[in-house]
Amino acid sequence: MTNKFSNFLSVSSGVIGDFLMTVNLAENFYLSSGEKIKTTIFASRNAYFLEELLGDGYPYIKIVPINFKGLISSHIFSLILSKNLVVLPMLFKGYPFKSLFFMKLFCLWPGSCLVGFSGVSPYSWYNKFFYTTEIVFDLKREFFDNLLATLNIAGLSVSFSIPRLHLRQRVESLAAGDVEGKYIVFHVAASRPRRTLPVKRWSSLVNDVLAIDDSISIVFTGSPADSSFVEQIIGGKDSQRCKNLAGKINASALLRVIDRAILYVGVDTGITHLAAMLEKEMVVLGHNESPTWLPSYNKKALILVDKSECVCKGDNSVRCTRSYDGREYTKCMLGVSNEKILASIRQKLSV
Q: In the chain, what is the straight-line distance between the N-terminal and C-terminal CA atoms, in Å?
């Protein structure tokens, strides 16, 4: 059964964390299959960033943008005429009809299989009609452990089960860039605006961290949309010790910046999973809205969540928020005090 498929296919919405999990799944598939089956990941956005992130570290993975040019290549037609194992990672809201129809095209060849998870949202009820095999997503298991269950469909034994990015040689080959000395990476924004802390709290925390050691600086990472938020946090602080790189560096530089940091401090988001898979020392401000996605697989991560006022069910069905200065924030993140975050940072720095 281990060689019944010619290709392994999956899809990415462009969300970094989910994409990295899919890369790890593809690596498991590749290493576990006797014939080293190659992978194609279709990306609806951020395809170039994702491709640059992997570089030549995963030569058996091909990323194809979901656009006209990407979908009329000879590669696509060869896939349609092959036996494929297609795995759709879990989405709480389910997949749009057109996405399911598109991925089903790669299951026309006899013996092909489309594996998907049952969605939590009632709007995803029709997803199961496209699946060859449907798996129930277990909210008590980590996201990646759920993904690994799909490999049982192919009759494959798993070579390893801890999410890691095997990019050491690639990272070491990258230029150091303009960030030198000892620094901590702060990644303060997530794709969902409520999953962060107010500017005042970040600004105060930054002051406290800078006071720990005069030789340590802070480097902020993020998307172009995060840059103004970071600027508010930095305010009038010393530009030599607070550097805003949000939206200013490419994927390769981001890898190098995170890898060279002495510590990573961030909210639960895709780049935090990138740091976790690079096995960085981390302090993570988490939440209980979907704890199965937290980077607890990295044993060097301290994950801080306040459950005292939390009403989350763990399935993204409840928006557990509290208002602060006219803006909504996730309760289980907002409830983590600056004192606790600072103590965790000191612990990691052994100060």
A: 54
- How far apart (Å, rounded) are the C-alpha atoms in residues 162 and 242? 33
pLDDT score recorded for residue 178: 63
Place of tokens 């990015």: 165
Residue type at 263?
L
Sign of the Cα pseudo-torsion (75, 15, 155, 131, in order) = negative
Over residues 154-188, the pLDDT tens digits come to 677 765 567 787 776 666 666 555 678 899 999 99
Tokens of 179: 């960030």
Q: Judge contact between 94 and 117, C-beta under 8 A.
A: no
Res 184: pLDDT: 97
Q: What is the pLDDT of residues 53-69, one digit of tens each?
A: 888 888 999 999 887 66
Q: Please name which of 278, 274, 277, 218 lies closest in space to residue 251, comparing C-alpha atoms.
A: 274
Q: How far is CA 217 from CA 25, 101, 183, 345, in A?
A: 36, 49, 5, 14
| Helix H or strand E segment including 252 | helix 251-260
pLDDT at position 209 over 90? yes
Residues in the chain: 351
Whether 217 and 240 have beta carbons less than 8 Å apart is answered as: yes
Contact 225, 188 (CB under 8 A): no
DSSP assignment of 291-342: GGGS-TT-TTEEEE---SS----SSS-S--EEEETTEEEEHHHHTS-HHHHH
**Closest among 281, 255, 288, 240 to 16, alpha carbons compared:** 255
Residues 74-126: pLDDT tens digits?
889 999 999 999 999 887 777 888 888 889 999 999 999 999 887 656 556 67
Provide the Cα torsion 160, 166, 169, 173; round to 10°: -170
The pLDDT-based confidence of 39 (bands split at 50, 70, 90) is: very high
Single-letter amino acid, residue 334: L
